[in-house]
Design goal:
Elements lengths: L2 E4 L7 E5 L4 H13 L7 E2 L5 H11 L4 E3 L4 H13 L4 E4 L10 H10 L1 E5 L8 E6 L6 E5 L4 H10 L7 E6 L5 H13 L5 E3 L4 E4 L9 E2 L4 H13 L6 E5 L12 H8 L1 E5 L3 E6 L5 E5 L7 H11 L2 E5 L11 H9 L5 E6 L3 E5 L12 E2 L5 H7 L8 E4 L11 H5 L5 E3 L1
The structure holds shikimate-3-phosphate and phosphoenolpyruvate.
Organism: Emticicia aquatilis
Keywords: Amino-acid biosynthesis, Aromatic amino acid biosynthesis, Transferase
Pathway: Metabolic intermediate biosynthesis; chorismate biosynthesis; chorismate from D-erythrose 4-phosphate and phosphoenolpyruvate: step 6/7
């Protein structure tokens, strides 16, 4: 299936969606559980996302080469895990994965005493983890403005190191909720930490993970596409209940509740999840995505299509994700009269909107750049117009049942 044509929604809907579970929580639970030297049977509701299935496969595999495909957390978390457990492994992935930086994590692991070599370009996968004979330092200093995944990776192995670990963070921190998610999941497995966010230090003493039953929450990043669907639906009585989401979530992307309250969606928490209903939208939005970078594409498409004037900050990290998401958004928003215009170098962007949509070429066809979030962020346009999504299978990275779920509200053709 290399294209899918989504037919414009023609009626209101009232559906319940059993969302995919969070790949971020799942991948942390799997690493921590492996460090607790337990099987994964005590982990409930693990994600079916390819990123998580890849993590499960590679944790079990005895092959020397670990191919993470395009999973960033799997690459970064396993690099630290294989180091801490002194395994001789070659870490690799897709060509794009080999363009996503890992030098900051490798430098930190080398400071701790690991022997790691780059097999192609300095600072990028593929790399060869050769061993970790003895801990040379109990402290590392790393910058926190490139990817929080390096910090999460180091934190999870920290209690298993003979001297424990103190992490000193420099620069402006990004994706902090993901670091807090890591720390909370470590705590769930009985490991404590001492974090001083003012001083930007996190200390973990040598300690033992205690295996426990852990249930993964549904995925708030995946929920964001349903918020966009409700925001863009032309029918006032449309509503969607997303199952398995909690009001007090470990996931920073639960901020979508707040963002969408400005864009026309009300959230009401229920016994089973959250009910989304339509409310009037505001005309402008200013949002800093530093703590929720994965929501930026969803919100950009929603604002562009709804005619909401939006200013985005904190989206620098989008350039080093599955694709350069800033460029991908610019290219695709332009196809219906929108854009993402850089107004201050690398810091501030304005979403150009188009109301009514001004389609440059019919039929509207969205290129997805091997990025699941491009496919899912543009799919809600089907509330307003027929739209083709190219390479729709990309969604398997985080939300394999996305198209099946979408079929509950609209019809579409595969080709
Ligand atoms: O730790 C995690 O689970 C993630 C952290 C974020 O990455 P960065 O820290 O690189 O922003 C996020 O974009 C990614 O989808 C998942
Ligand atoms: C950036 C993402 O994932 P990762 O960095 O883990 O590949 C994502 O899922 O949007």
């Amino acid at each position: 299936m290399d294209k899918i044509l989504l037919r414009k929604s023609t009626s209101p809907f009232d559906v319940k969606i059993a969302l995919a579970s969070s790949k971020s929580e799942s991948n942390r639970a799997l690493i921590i559980n492996a460090l607790a030297k337990d099987s994964s049977e005590n982990l409930l509701n693990l994600s079916t996302a390819r990123d998580t299935q890849t993590m499960i496969r590679l944790l079990k595999s005895t092959d020397q080469t670990a191919d993470v495909i395009d999973a960033g957390t799997t690459m970064r978390f396993l690099t630290a895990y294989f180091t801490a457990t002194n395994q001789n492994k070659i870490m690799t992935g897709t060509p794009r994965m080999c363009e996503r930086p890992i030098g900051i994590l490798v430098d930190a692991l080398r400071t701790l005493g690991a022997e790691i070599e780059y097999l192609a370009k300095e600072g990028y996968p593929p790399l060869h983890i050769k061993g970790f004979a003895e801990q040379k330092s109990s402290e590392v200093t790393i910058r926190g403005d490139v990817s929080s995944q390096y910090i999460s990776a180091l934190l999870m192995i920290a209690p298993t190191l003979p001297q424990g670990l103190t992490i000193n963070l420099t620069c402006d921190l990004g994706s902090i909720p993901y670091i807090k998610m890591t720390l909370e999941q470590m705590k769930a497995f009985d490991v404590n930490y001492d974090a001083n966010w003012e001083a930007k230090t996190i200390k973990v003493l040598p300690s033992v993970y205690r295996s426990t039953t852990y249930k993964v929450e549904s995925d708030w990043s995946g929920a964001s596409y349903w918020y966009s669907i409700v925001a863009l639906s032309e029918f006032e009585n449309t509503q969607v209940e997303l199952l398995g989401l909690k009001e007090n979530s470990l996931q920073g992307d639960s901020d979508i509740v707040n963002i969408m309250s400005h864009l026309g969606v009300k959230s009401t928490f229920t016994a089973d999840g959250v009910l989304l209903t339509k409310i009037p939208a505001e005309t402008t939005l200013n949002w800093d995505f530093t703590n929720c970078p994965d929501l930026a594409q969803t919100v950009a498409v929603t604002c562009a299509a709804k005619g909401i004037e939006a200013t985005f900050t904190g989206i620098e990290s989008l350039k080093i994700k599955e694709t350069d998401r800033v460029l991908a958004l610019q290219n695709e928003l332009k196809k219906f009269g929108g854009d993402l215009v850089e107004v201050e170098k690398n810091t501030t962007y304005k979403v150009k909107s188009s109301q009514p949509l001004s389609i440059v070429n019919y039929p509207l066809s969205i290129h997805t750049y091997d990025d699941h979030r491009m496919a899912m962020a543009f799919a809600p346009l089907a509330m307003m117009i027929d739209v083709t999504i190219e390479e729709p299978n990309v969604v398997v990275k985080s939300y394999p049942s996305f198209w099946t779920d979408l079929q509950k509200i609209i019809s579409f053709d595969n080709f």
